[in-house]
Design brief:
- This protein has seven helices and 14 strands.
- By secondary structure, the chain is an alpha+beta fold.
- The chain has one domain: CNF1/YfiH-like putative cysteine hydrolases (4-Layer Sandwich).
- The longest helix has 15 residues.
């Protein structure tokens, strides 16, 4: 038994096993229905373990070889060459060149990205919400891949289901933080119908940062987590509804 997932032709061409898993095909119930991969959620731990095992099977790795770190919205990236064991490292990106390991990150509106340099045999996965993208997790992942032997112009990056501009309303203080970093960031904000608010384009911001870093190719799947309740979890949607918690999507990649 395995879990259904979305794939990108770029990574299929690279010959890497990967999946952008939806919320469908798992064992969880309630607000977590049904393929919740969030160990940090308040879902039944046994259900999450079963869901992750289904994903590992889809990827072609052993359950304990699907590695998902303890995410902290940081710029930190770690090279791994073996399973974690009992303690998950606190970081927001992973890189490996070890076959048989799957690198995963979770998200529920935040950007979930998979990286591949097929020639060097180096892969990566990164979690990039606004804070991680703002503070450098994308740059950190690329630098760490280079340390593992990758060539930046050969790296291909795919952004999975992420909250879209149309669904991401923010306040003036949020916008001003980005403008203080770089005035050109105004390109990623449009006026909202609500006075003093703006619509933030996180996928475009991520894509622009990767382009500035010289990656070989970037692909955005263009899937809005907030708008597509049937397939995706969304933190923001859960807050707007007053729900007690929310499930987490998983994006993962493996050399098998």
């Amino acid at each position: 038994m395995s879990a259904p997932s979305l794939e990108c032709d770029l990574l299929v061409e690279d010959g890497v096993s990967h999946g952008f898993f939806t919320r469908q095909g798992g064992t969880s119930s309630g607000v977590y229905a049904s393929l919740n991969g969030g160990r940090g959620s308040r879902d039944a731990p046994s259900a999450v373990v079963q869901n992750l095992a289904l994903m590992a099977q889809t990827l072609g790795v052993a359950p304990d070889h699907l590695l998902v770190p303890y995410l902290t919205h940081s710029p930190d990236c770690l090279i791994v060459d073996k399973p974690f064991g009992a303690d998950r490292p606190r970081c927001d990106a992973l890189v490996t060149k070890t076959r048989g390991l799957a690198l995963g990150v979770t998200g529920a509106d935040c950007g979930i990205l998979l990286f591949s340099d097929p020639g060097a045999g180096v892969i990566g996965a990164a979690h990039a919400g606004w804070k991680g993208a703002f503070t450098g997790v994308l740059e950190s992942t690329l630098q760490t891949m280079e340390e593992a032997g990758a060539s930046r112009p050969a790296i291909r990056v795919v952004l999975g289901p992420t909250i879209a501009r149309e669904s991401y309303e923010v306040g003036t203080e949020f916008r001003d933080r980005f403008l203080a970093q770089n005035a050109r960031n105004i390109l990623f904000f449009d006026a909202s119908v609500k006075k003093g608010h703006f619509m933030f384009d996180l996928p475009a911001y991520i894509g622009a940062k990767l382009a500035a870093e010289g990656v070989g190719e970037f692909r955005n799947l263009g899937l809005d987590t907030y708008a597509d309740e049937e397939r995706f979890y969304s933190y923001r949607r859960s807050v707007h509804r007053g729900e007690p918690d929310y499930g987490r999507l998983v994006a993962a990649i493996a050399l098998v």
